[in-house]
Amino acid sequence: MTQQQERIIALKKEKNAIILAHYYQIPEIQAIADFLGDSLALAQAAKNTDADVIVFCGVHFMAETAKILNPQKTVVLPNMGAGCSLADSADPAKFKKWKEENPDVVFITYINCSTEVKALSDIIVTSANAEKIVNSISKDKKICFAPDKNLGTFIANKYDREMTMWNGGCHVHLRFSEEDVIAKKAEYPDAMVLAHPECPQHILKYADFIGSTTGIINKAGEVDKKDFIILTEPGVFYPLETNNPDKRFIPVSAKNGSLNVCEHMKMITLDNLEEALVTLSPEIHLEEELRLAALKPLEKMLELSK
Ligand code: 13P
Ligand code: SF4
Known about the structure:
Mean pLDDT: 97
Order of helices and strands: HEHEHEHEHHEHEHEHEHHEHEHEHEHH
Helix content: 40-55%
Strand content: 15-25%
Number of helices: 16
Oligomer: single chain
Bound molecules: 1,3-dihydroxyacetonephosphate, iron/sulfur cluster
Low-confidence stretches: none
Number of strands: 12
Largest sheet: 4 strands, parallel
């Protein structure tokens, strides 16, 4: 442990703060987080904490979700610039118009979206519960699914369910190189391919298992195999390798040949995390009426995820 990590741990005790971190964070942050998880587990942890301060090491929509669930707590995002291309692909005004054009339709929205879009949605889902929640909607109801077209298409195909899709996507999962998936499968013929559902269908067709980041990490631990080809952001290699020292985890590159990193997630650093704990800023603020509207579909999700 470095001196800076020790200072951060001391600061969070002093401020009665909890550090929630996503698996795409740098290893040095994952190592000192109080709670590490996928978007669903992080939302549940944010709801259940009795700390006064939540320092969110993830992206903006995740910290906003924590604030929607905890209006009385201080929620801090160490770098407000940490956005999400998928959340940005759903403009609230365009989403509102889409909703007005589709009355009597259930609007199911992936948690990777703004608070404004959440407030206009009927139910929020994450990659860990989207299949279960879509299947809980009676077949005679029409569904509009936003903003991730890839996750929506994966579910629609798997369950033969008709859904109208918003045309959004995550720039990281969209840029995996199909050529490199084929090359890695040839190089490691016994490897199991684990993929996140934000990958497009021409990449998902190579997957032996499709799930959330937690789903991928759990699957690699359970399966009696040595090699795993991983189709999600490489932050997951830290828990995968820490939990399974005898297994081998193989990344797939982006189309430009580089490691397929989410640059937004990597905007949180030990320096801005320490600074955030000293100053308890930058803080997430939400207008109360908007927060209450966004809370409804999020609570529905948490209820349906039990
Ligand atoms: P998870 O729900 O699997 O954590 O995914 C969140 C995300 O942003 C993936 O790109
Ligand atoms: Fe958003 Fe994609 Fe980064 Fe996940 S990996 S936070 S969906 S930009």
